[in-house]
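Weekly puzzle thread! Below is a chain. First person to post its structure in token form gets bragging rights.
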Amino acid sequence: MQIQKFLAIALVGNECFFTDASWEKLAAYLPGSKVTSHSAIDLDQAAIENVLAVEPIQYPVVKNIYERGGNSKTYAEFSVPALSFALSKGDVVVGATSGITGKMYSSYSKEATVIRVAYSTSDVQATYIGCKGGALSATPAGTTATAMTPYILTTGCFQKESLTITTASGTVVVAPTGVPTTKAGRTLQGFSTKAEGSMHQKYPKGIVLALPTVPPMAAATAISPSTTNIMAISTMPTSLSWQRSTAGRQASPKAKATWTSRAGLPCCARNASRRAPPT
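Winning reply:
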């Protein structure tokens, strides 16, 4: 299996840099951004395996975990009196009693009666989150619930408490009508059913290519069935689109591609090809 290393691209002023961000390693992989919540999807798999290990197997429980998850992208769902103001995705939220922090999961208009608050996550995988629920089971006797166990975790959950929310217009307070429900916004079902539509489209000869939608004004590198690493690059001044795929058995000719910074200045010419592994 071919392993590719992806680099973070940083745009600073008119300059462009390739960099490996200093995040905690996942096994031998060094991510280029914070993915502690993303990688916690493995705990949904662990939860399913726990259920499958007990006879008779409770398949409805397995399906529930698959569809609803509980470990990744957790959020609190509150019932609230009809809002008299709008809230925006990303607005910072603080629980008045618990001190728990998060951000608005989505944007909400006036009169909304249900809001979701995404829990803050840590850069450290072992303590990435303090609240988990969804379809997870209660912690078995003799086991201590932590962020890294595939069970319900309540040590860092919002309570029935007032929420102080910082919006672009100032600070507002919302008083939920009850204890929030803990849910997960990222699930195994979501990963499984959205992968093909989100990442790939079929090449006429059956080769799978990862191709972004390239605007008419943009330029892209040449694509051929023998290309091993296919790169398509939008050179619009305000955008940067870079996706790769492996296909074919022959190495592509070496080529160079140039990106533009947000100011429209060319930067970062890099070799865009890599030799295919032996077959």
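Puzzle host: Confirmed. Bonus trivia for everyone else. Residues 1-20, 203-211, 216-279 have pLDDT under 50 and may be disordered.
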